[in-house]
Amino acid sequence: MSNLSVEFDTQEGIVKAVDDVSVSLNRGEVLAIVGESGSGKSVTSQAIIGTLPIPPGQITGGQIYFDGQNLLELAPAKRRAIAGARIAMISQDAQSALDSRFTVGYQIGEMFRHHRGWSWKKSRAAAVDLLDKVRIPNAASRVNDYPHQFSGGMQQRAVIAAAISLEPDLLIADEPTTALDVTVQAEVMRLLQDLKTELGLSMILVTHDLAQAYETADRVSVMYAGRIVEHGDRDQIFGSPAHPYTRGLFAATPRMDQGDAELMVIPGTTPNLAALPQGCAFAPRCSNRQDSCVRERPQAVTIAEGHTSACLFASDVHAFGSPFPKGALDSERVGERHDHGT
Amino acid sequence: MITERDAPLSLELRSVHKRFESKKPSLFSRSPKYINAVNGVTLSVPAGKTLGLVGESGSGKSTLARLILRLEDVTSGDILLSGKSILEATGPELRRFRQQVQMVFQDPFGSLNPRMSVGELISEAWTVHPEKRPEDPSSRLAQLMEQVGLRPEWSSRYPGQFSGGQRQRIGISRALAVGPDLLVCDEPVSALDVSVQAQILKLLKDIQRETGITYIFISHDLSVVRYISDHVAVMYLGSVVESGPAQSVYDNPMHPYTRALLAAVPSFQDSDGLDGKLRLQGEPPDPADPPSGCPFRTRCWRAEMRCADEEPPLVPQGEDRVVACHFPGR
After folding, report:
1. Between residues 58 and 97 of chain A, which touch chain B (CB distance below 8 Å)?
2. A278 inside domain
3. Strand runs labelled E in chain B
4. How many domains does chain A have?
5. A49: which residues sit within 8 A by CB, 6+ positions away?
6. Do A182 and B269 lie within an 8 Å CB cutoff?
């Protein structure tokens, strides 16, 4: 995906929800898009799968290549065929993704009947297999249940089952666990990880949870006010972040291993997209702000191979090193274990 | 049970039960079905401290909050505020209780009347509790707004003009207006963005330091609870399965459920949660049909015969810790 821009026509004027965003994803990789509300992370994923509400939304620039084809230039029918079968999406709200009037099995089976023209009987058997695969106990009997008979965690599993039914290449998971209890959340993330390995899926995980991104992603894009402010592989982002916003997010997230140590607060709130400042969008909240930040809008600069930051002082911020105390990151400890040859 | 000998207790719960009728008796079943939403909870919070309540949805933590606020009546047991039972309170005594205990809600969008200005919202509390009306309401209003980080000149604005975090500040300021002793916060930051969440958490801590107010803090986010709480109580299916000082519970969880819960939290640090040992199978049982013996045994990897026969009582384990498990800490 390169230079994607999405605008929304709102009462307050034209709003740039996604501004010149470029990301790429290799087969079998997990990309986490991290950001707060209004950062454009969900709009980006909607643009990829083609569920962007147009109007008020409009893609004003850029290309989205999937397997060599520019999705934005395809005819709607062809695009739908790709979006339905090869790109799948699961969202935060499993309850609204399922239709309460039909059984879970019917809704999953519908994927096969619609896209592959299978018989009802064959589709139903495939639905049972899928429910089994997403670890729903007694799949053969639960397939006849209606969504309300499933718990929240099971509903999300059923949605995942429908999403992987046509063996997609890319799965977009938009805050897949936000509405779930922490134990169920862990199970769903584990399931997604296992499915990724098993089916060779590529995944885009949209999340506000940095720790979840750390546990799941190979690469991370941090979004703020419609732009990617930092991008890098997992160890670059967590080991030596090069954007003050990324560092601020780390410092503002309570961590169990820190006990009740003081949190560092990012002052202010996320900006109004209809009235973005002329310079860096994060400047009003930034503790490293200089005069030039208010005048000049920073472009992404490369800090290290595969690691970019849209900050005028990216290399200074990068030089601060790890935002975590030594040994706090699991990857460091894994490294140590290797060093000792155990 | 949380006891700190020196500090006076702000709130004390003594084997509190709350039973809901789940189904009306039908033609075929003679006796109605009951759900024990809160099942014999005994807890106390010293004045000026924070008790964090954690547990999955359906564990009874929100029902417990409603009982403390007297929005629901207990089925049995007693709730004491500063040593006095709140259950008997009527008339002026009840009014005083309603002023002493305030609440901050999860949803900063739904809990504020959109047609009232911020100033009206905050000073409304003085209409309800005229005895708490300050001599100079407008300067007190300004002071309250400053305390929560709102500019006093915004008092004529309406909730719709504020962001989620600012609305939560309005909610907190409104609760503080009548000078409560106890603030019940039910998921106060779960609707907020990470950067804003930190501001509100810090604000709550600062207010406690300044005023010595006591908090009951309910959250599904265990990292947030660790940050804000002095004491933690872990609830499962209506019962407290473990409680104690936050640091001690988090560093050395003794109940298998606490261990599983902590292991499930995404973290930068331990991957124990993903290695399979502490995976919690299945989901909490139906509260209308709880398992015999220990409520957690159906999901517990250490369960033995004894767990099905005997419900483990809460027994002290070291200083200020109680755990309801036959095989704690193993």
Report:
1. none
2. yes
3. 9-23, 33-46, 50-54, 76-81, 84-85, 101-104, 182-186, 214-218, 231-236, 239-245, 315-316, 322-323
4. 1
5. A83, A87, A89, A172
6. no
Give alpha helix (H) positions in B18-176.
61-68, 91-100, 118-128, 137-147, 164-176
The nearest CA of chain A is from the CA of B256 a distance in Å of 13
Is residue A195 in some structural domain? no
Q: Which of B268, B274, B279, B296 to mutate to test the interface with A (most CBs of A within 10 A)?
A: B268
**B268, A214: Cβ pair inside 8 Å?**
yes
The first and second tokens of residue A76, run together, are 């709607």
In angstroms, the CA B169 to CA B182 distance is 17
Only one residue has tokens 């609830």, namely B235
Summarised one tens digit per residue, pLDDT across range B116-170 is 999 999 999 898 888 888 888 889 999 899 888 888 888 899 888 888 888 889 9
Angle at B235 between CA B234 and CA B239, to 5 degrees: 130
Q: A266: domain range? A: 234-339
Confidence of residue B25 (pLDDT cuts 50, 70, 90): low
**pLDDT score for A28:** 86
Nearest to B129 by CA among B157, B90, B162, B102: B102
What is the C-alpha to C-alpha distance for residues B20 and A209, in angstroms, rounded to an integer?
36
What's the alpha-carbon Rg for chain A, to the nearest Å?
21
Which tens digits make up the pLDDT trace of A120-142? Answer: 888 889 899 889 888 888 888 88
> Are the beta carbons of A269 and B166 closer than 8 angstroms?
yes
Specify the DSSP class assigned to residue A219: E
Q: Domain segments of chain B: what residues?
A: 9-22+33-323
Pick the CATH number of B9-22+33-323 from 2.40.160.10, 3.40.50.2030, 3.40.50.150, 3.40.50.300: 3.40.50.300
Among A231-240, A324-333, B199-208, B220-229, the least confident range: A324-333
pLDDT, averaged in runs of 10, over chain A (342 residues): 74 79 86 88 83 77 81 80 82 80 89 86 89 84 87 85 87 84 83 86 90 90 91 90 91 83 81 82 87 88 90 85 72 41 30
Would you say residue A298 lies in a domain?
yes
Does residue A315 sit within a domain? Answer: yes
Is the Cβ pair B264, A185 closer than 8 Å? yes
Determine the length of chain A.
Answer: 342
- A residues 209..268 contacting B (CB < 8 A): 209-212, 214-215, 238, 248-249, 252-260, 262-267
Contact A330 B270 (CB under 8 A): yes
Asked if the Cβ–Cβ distance from B201 to A184 is below 8 Å, we say: no
Quick check: bond before B245 cis, omega within 30? no
Nearest to B273 among A186, A238, A248 (CB): A186
